[in-house]
Amino acid sequence: MHQAGPETADLLGLQQPQDESKESLLQGLEGVYYEEGFQPLPHELGVLGHKVTSGDLEATAEARTAVLDVLGELLSQHILANYAKFVKGIDSVSDIERELASSLETVRAGRAELAHMKQSAFMDVCIAEGALRKRRIAKVLDALLKLQATKQLSVSVREAQDKGEFSQAFWQCAQSCQWMSELQQIHASKPLTASVNQLYEETTAWLENALQSLCAEFKPDRVTKVLEGYIFLGNTSQLGSEVTVAFTNAMDASVLAAAKLTVVAHFGGPERAKGITSLQEAIKGMPANVLRICLAKVLTAIHDVLISHHRMLAWVQEGRQRHAADMSTLQHAKTSLHMRLSSMDPSFSASLTELQDVEWNEQGEMAWGDVLGVVMSGLVNGRGFLWEEASNKLLMMFAAPSVFSDDHFLTAVNWAHAATAMGAGFCGSQDPVRAFRGTMIQQTRAAFDQLHAQRMDALYSMLERELWKCVPPPATPGSFRPLAATGG
């Protein structure tokens, strides 16, 4: 018979059976019964052989049943001896089962949360991609709109030029230049930048022409826009000299236009005046009657420019007075806002926005006052130079001998006196016109002497052609009667 294995011995050793018969039954059990996967029925049938009887089967069954009962009894005793451990094991198994169930729920919840997070992350990624795509599209659209606006800039700039809105035209050009500097990587930005620079130069030329037009004919409703254009350019420090140059150019243009108009009216069509570039060329070879007409027109042109200068100076002086009043108002408002901001009373509180608006207006008003001061200085200091240019043109006209010829001598003298008075009134004193008056006196005196000599020669010639007869002295009253009777 095979002996029981170690595990079986430990199990049986927990309580040793008191009955020797039971012990013998267990000892008589073959060892193969303790092997895993053992099949007892084929084994027992093999042991009995082919000549087995029912009695043998019953005896074998009873023996094995007795062994089974002994094992069951021993197993029960073992279980009862280890009941606390068994119960504890069952409780541990239950706890483990509950923990596994809880872990399963946690895993399921975690999976659901992960799925939700995955969906949320996917949606966030989609939203982020959409937002990024929108930003890229918006950036491209913004660049395209800037390119389109720059391409169509000439229309809006020329409209502003026609309306005299020079600051707006300059601002549009500056904005477009900034756009093109931001879009340097685009090939189309280079030609567009060149076109913007050309528009900027054109606007500058328009501004200079507008200033010269104001000098030729002052219009109060346009001077503000012109000065705002120069403020935007930022070169206001030289504006005084530019105003003087503009008045000089306006006088040159007006005088030359008057001379050309005389040439066109008396010597043919406009083709005759195309090649004339100076007053000296225009009056060269003019007959006396045409030269006097030209002189009258030149005097009128000079008078108009000087009147325009006078009106601009008066407008600037009034503007400086308004500027002083506006600055006083803004400073008072600024002081009041500072007091309200520092006040603890809520009913007198003020916002920083209001203060910033007042300070912004104050800066603009200060810039405007600076421009008016520069322009006024240029107008006052340039009066002498402008009159010198005008007097040179008048002296050139009066230098022609034909101006004082014949019966128009007194007219020319009156024009000379009028020009002298005009210069004195324009300059505000007699000193700037002293040289002009002296020259005109010399020319008038020379012309008078020449005219007087011509008249005396003519009178002498006429008297020489007369028939003279000696008459008796007046002491003889009757001596004149025959002469009167004969019609002598």
Automatic annotation (TrEMBL):
Q: Which Pfam families match?
A: Vps54_N
Q: Please tell me whether the keyword DNA damage is annotated for this protein.
A: no
Annotated keywords = Coiled coil, Protein transport, Transport
Q: Name one GO molecular function term.
A: SNARE binding
Where in this chain does the record put each Vacuolar protein sorting-associated protein 54 N-terminal domain? Answer: 28-315
| Keyword Protein transport in record | yes
Name of this protein: Vacuolar protein sorting-associated protein 54 N-terminal domain-containing protein
